[in-house]
Amino acid sequence: MRIKKSSMQRWVAALVLALAVAPCARADEASKRAKVEELVSVMHMDRMMDQMLEAIKGQTEQAMQQPGADSMTPEQKKIETDYQAKALQIVIDSMGWKAMEPQFVTLYAQNFTEEEIDGMVAFYKSPTGQAVLNKMPQLMSSAMQLTQSRMVDVQPKIKALMDDMVKQMDAATPKSSSPAAKN
């Protein structure tokens, strides 16, 4: 009987300890989430998401201005405009900051320690951090243009390489019988 009582006492002690630690873990998690929310606020992530959605809207509008749009009837243009508004609303509802913020907070909380989050908050609150945030969209746009201009130079080289490979493959293909005939 003594063994059962001792075992029961250890089990109760473990349960009490677990119950005592759980609120601390929840408090630490709440503290971390609050810090992440501060981080996304000082990073102006809501503004970044709005800019991204505006870019998507601009691309959509540009795509709708394709050849043939001038030949549409007023009714067709209205249908297209209505479609565009509905499609954009779906994107906003799915990818707008209100929809994405909880997931972003969770991602940051899962991937960074509280100390790292504190460091990022301090950085992004600083004048240098704010300069990074303000200049990053233009920097990324310029980098994208640079990459696209390089692709213009690379594409003919890749095409020439591919043409050469096709010639080599043709030369390496037996002329007397087709691969299907061998099977």
Multimeric organization: single chain
How many β strands by DSSP?
A: 0
Q: What Rg, in angstroms, do the CA atoms define?
A: 30 Å
Give the number of helices.
7
Helix content: over 70%
Portion in beta strands: under 5%
Low-confidence stretches: none
Mean pLDDT: 84
- For the record, the count of structural domains works out to 2
Indicate the overall shape: extended
Biggest β-sheet strands, sense, barrel: none
The SS-based structural class is mainly alpha
Order of helices and strands: HHHHHHH
Our measurement of the CA-to-CA distance between the termini, rounded to an integer number of angstroms, reads 79 Å
Topology of helices and strands:
Blueprint: H1 2-42, H2 45-64, H3 74-95, H4 97-111, H5 114-125, H6 127-172, H7 179-182
Description:
The chain is mostly helical and 183 residues long. It is 87% helix and 0% strand. Helix 1 (2-42) runs parallel beside helix 5, helix 2 runs antiparallel to helix 3 (74-95) and helix 3 (74-95) runs parallel beside helix 4. The longest helix is centred in the C-terminal third of the chain and has 46 residues, at 127-172. The relative contact order is 0.07. The model has no long low-confidence stretch (mean pLDDT 84).
Question: What attributes characterize this protein structure?
Answer:
about 85% helix, extended, 7 helices, 2 domains, about 180 residues, mainly alpha
